């Protein structure tokens, strides 16, 4: 079946995003946009990051996006591998709206492997958006221009994982230039994958460890905390399910299973669950970012207080 051409959103048409028209200058005219699907009426948050994202960063992205969708936000990203795909998929799984802003024409989906994902975005009531006419192939400079639109059409941008030269940092730069809230997930100082995040934080970005940090940045109150059920109120604290436990992978759950109120050294955790130190360190980072594990002195960890 032939796919119909995109809807052309020219700057002088009523459906054109007013925020882009308002950002026009004598030197820079607002770009013509090409749309398939429907742009959400909900406020949007851009969630971006590196293509070769680690499993922990993808898991954090999914948890963050699910909470943002629950708080009433649409999720925007670039449709790429890694963090972008995790953001779109989590939004779909949470029955939320998501928008793919691509760096190619909409007749040239990129990456091709994500065509099924893009179809799901449209089927769920989301949208595909581009600055380029439908037949335009992907080019490096197109993705930089794409990131400006992505930052301009959302209330805030969140960078989950980015190396020093990650393309996600161009989205961060656009948000900073536009004066939009920029949130960045902190990474360990020895993490090359997160070195770009460290630089963004040093330049003034807000640290994001949960959805409440994003909500606060855009002027919304934090999400309400989950209440204990009647059954949970009779359980000891160690046996209660954690608020984000369903989003953790097997390694994070294994780490949680050996931690209690008494601090345990990283080496002991590795020996107990028989897992390599880098993997356990990554799992502990995910758990500490969600505040379910607390880091103590000299490389020790314990469960967080409820």
How would you describe what is shown here?
There is one protein chain. With 306 residues, the protein is α/β, with parallel strands linked by helices. It has two domains: 7-217, 3-Layer(aba) Sandwich (Rossmann fold); 232-303, Orthogonal Bundle (Arc Repressor Mutant, subunit A), CATH 1.10.10. The chain has eleven helices and twelve strands. The chain has helices at 18-22, 55-70, 83-93, 115-123, 140-152, 168-178, 195-202, 211-217, 250-258, 266-273, 277-289, and strands spanning 7-9, 33-37, 44-48, 74-77, 98-102, 127-130, 156-159, 182-184, 206-207, 264-265, 293-295, 300-303. The strands form two sheets. The chain has a nine-stranded mixed sheet, with helices on both faces. The chain has a three-stranded antiparallel sheet with strand order 10-12-11. β4, α3 and β5 form a beta-alpha-beta unit. α2 packs parallel to α3 (83-93), α5 crosses α6 and α9 (250-258) packs across α11 (277-289).
């Amino acid at each position: 079946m032939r796919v119909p051409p995109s809807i052309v959103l020219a700057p002088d048409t009523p459906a054109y995003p007013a925020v882009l028209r308002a950002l026009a200058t004598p030197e820079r005219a607002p770009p013509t946009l090409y749309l398939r699907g429907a742009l959400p009426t909900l406020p949007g948050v851009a969630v971006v990051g590196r293509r070769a994202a680690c499993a922990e960063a993808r898991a954090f992205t999914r948890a963050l996006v699910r909470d943002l969708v629950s708080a009433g936000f649409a999720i925007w990203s670039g449709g790429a591998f890694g963090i972008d795909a995790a953001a779109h998929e989590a939004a779909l799984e949470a029955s939320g709206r998501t928008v793919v802003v691509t760096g190619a024409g909409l007749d040239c989906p990129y990456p091709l492997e994500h065509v099924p994902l893009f179809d799901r975005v449209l089927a769920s009531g989301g949208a595909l958006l581009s600055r380029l006419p439908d037949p335009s192939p992907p080019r490096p400079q197109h993705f930089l221009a794409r990131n400006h639109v992505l930052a301009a059409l959302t209330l805030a941008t969140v960078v989950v994982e980015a190396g020093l030269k990650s393309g996600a940092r161009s989205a961060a730069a656009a948000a900073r230039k536009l004066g939009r809230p920029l949130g960045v997930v902190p990474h360990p100082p020895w993490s090359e994958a997160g070195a770009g995040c460290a630089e963004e934080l040093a330049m003034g970005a807000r640290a994001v460890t949960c959805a409440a940090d994003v909500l606060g940045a855009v002027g919304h109150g934090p999400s309400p905390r989950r209440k204990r059920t009647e059954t949970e109120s009779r359980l000891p604290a160690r046996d209660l399910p954690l608020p984000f436990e369903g989003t953790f992978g097997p390694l994070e759950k294994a780490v949680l299973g050996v931690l209690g109120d008494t601090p345990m050294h990283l080496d002991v955790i590795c020996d107990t669950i028989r897992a390599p130190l880098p993997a356990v360190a990554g799992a502990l980072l995910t758990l500490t970012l969600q505040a379910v594990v607390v880091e103590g002195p000299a490389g020790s960890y314990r469960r967080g207080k409820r």
